[in-house]
């Protein structure tokens, strides 16, 4: 295992302890390189950069995925990830509401629905 993959695996396991294995397993039979790219690049390079803490990175990711409006499963995973690294429910809700100005009401409402699902799942 190379250094980028090891760093990425450690980071993804920190943020998404339940989902990281599923991501790699779900891609293994059809696109194993895609799973490796996610681990090495997104988590091994981007998430380990200095300058932002994990809470800030996860809030930025929740904002971006909310604004995109077409990445529901990833948004739910990153809402849970944000909670795992110490974001409060209020911070998550506020960053989603902030997206009204940039992505519109439908994207923000869908983001809030995703947050509601995650909050109910976690309890």
UniProtKB/TrEMBL annotation:
Query: What terms describe the molecular function in GO for this protein?
Result: peroxiredoxin activity
All copies of domain Carboxymuconolactone decarboxylase-like, residue ranges: 32-117
| Protein name per the record | Carboxymuconolactone decarboxylase
Q: Supply the source organism for this entry.
A: Methanobacterium paludis (strain DSM 25820 / JCM 18151 / SWAN1)
- Source organism phylogeny: Archaea, Methanobacteriati, Methanobacteriota, Methanomada group, Methanobacteria
């Amino acid at each position: 295992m190379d250094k980028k993959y090891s760093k990425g695996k450690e980071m993804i396991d920190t943020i998404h302890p339940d989902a990281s294995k599923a991501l790699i397993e779900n891609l293994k039979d059809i696109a194993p390189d895609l799973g490796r790219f996610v681990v090495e690049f997104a988590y091994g390079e981007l998430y380990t950069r200095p300058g932002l803490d994990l809470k800030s990175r996860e809030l930025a990711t929740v904002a971006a995925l909310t604004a995109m409006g077409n990445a529901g499963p990833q948004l739910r995973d990153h809402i849970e990830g944000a909670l795992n690294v110490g974001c409060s429910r209020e911070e998550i809700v506020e960053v989603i509401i902030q997206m009204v100005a940039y992505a519109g009401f439908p994207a923000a409402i869908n983001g809030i629905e995703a947050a509601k699902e995650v909050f109910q799942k976690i309890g």
